[in-house]
Amino acid sequence: MSDPATLRRLLAREDQILLVPGAGTPIEALAIERAGFEAVYLSGYAIAAWRHGLPDIGLLGAGELLDAVRAIRRVSNLPLIVDADTCYGDVTTTWANVREIEAAGASAIQIEDQVWPKKCGHMLGKEVIDADEAVRKVATALDARRDPDTVIIARTDALGPRGIDEAIARALRFVEVGADMVFLDAPGSREDLARIGETVPGLLMANVSEGGRTPTLPATDFHDLGFHLVIYPTTPLRSAAKTIQDLVTDLRREGDSLNWRERMYGLDELNDLVRLEEYLEVGDRENNRRV
Fold first, then answer.
1. Measured on CA atoms in the order 119, 208, 221, 21, is the torsion positive or negative?
2. What residue numbers bound the domain in which 64 lies?
3. What's phi and psi for 289, nearest 5 deg?
4. Residue 134's domain is classified under what CATH number?
5. What is the pLDDT along the chain (291 residues), one digit of tens a residue?
6. Domains in the chain: how many in total?
């Protein structure tokens, strides 16, 4: 079964929600896979921050995204849900980039209706494009995919600048044009989440951004409210960044890393995570091949 088909099967389960951590790097994807999760979410924020040390305000484009997709796909076969921002242009650019992102290994492609340069969905000051243009871009993404199982996720950021009524109206139009899943970003209350779940048909996605605008609820609560996928797009990034800062601060102060030994991987453990033995076995096998 292909990765897109696998993802569709996971999303179709009625008895449980699909919970997916976010990543911006292959090492996170490896950890997510080892922990037993069933998919990986490639976060635009995490790509900007982890791979480039930049804020999520539209400073990167399709090239950096494709590099990140290929890097994760090289080490993980889990279904990969890709945050493609606005698809970086008009309908023509959307068509071309969906083709490229899908070919690079995406199982799902998420596009949004922000004005470029976009911002992280939980930041203030967002603006959205005209609703008709947003619908055309979603329809274009659906037309562009080569594999009909590739999941197209239509995201609207209209809730912040335009209010929940406008956001729901856009979501309903995305559903009408055929979007596989809809994502209304940054609802500010449980009541908003409940209204979305009651009003918008089909598959729904929610986003937990700790400290952001949406309440941090248990995954089971999102399921009860009518959602099918909940992502934690920057949770690993935030935890790792805080840990790194605390570690180097302590190293600078104490002059050694002794206090951290039990909180870090040993060299053998890290080598195991990145599957060193698999590569060594390949080398041994190929070097002993009869030619």
1. positive
2. 3-235
3. -70, 135
4. 3.20.20.60
5. 568 999 999 999 999 999 999 999 999 999 999 999 999 999 999 999 999 999 999 999 999 999 999 999 999 999 999 999 999 999 999 999 999 999 999 999 999 999 999 988 888 889 999 999 999 999 999 999 999 999 999 999 999 999 999 999 999 999 999 999 999 999 999 999 999 999 999 999 999 988 888 889 999 999 999 999 999 999 999 999 999 999 999 999 999 999 999 999 999 999 999 999 999 999 889 899 888
6. 2
Tokens for 163, please give them: 């209010």
Please answer whether residues 22 and 235 qualify as being in contact, where contact means their C-beta atoms are separated by less than 8 angstroms: yes
| Structure tokens that stand for 231 in this block | 């992502």
At 83, give phi and psi (nearest 5°): -80, 105
Pair 56, 187 in one domain: yes
Say whether both 71 and 114 belong to one domain.
yes
DSSP 8-state secondary structure symbol assigned to residue 263: G
Tokens matching residue 70: 């290929």
Dist. CA 273–CA 75, nearest whole Å: 11
215 lies in the same domain as 276: no
In DSSP terms, 18 is beta-bridged to: 229
Give backbone dihedrals phi and psi of 113, rounded to 5 degrees, phi first: -110, 25
Q: What gap in Å lies between CA 263 and CA 280, rounded to an integer?
A: 27
Give the C-alpha separation, 215 to 236, whole Å: 18
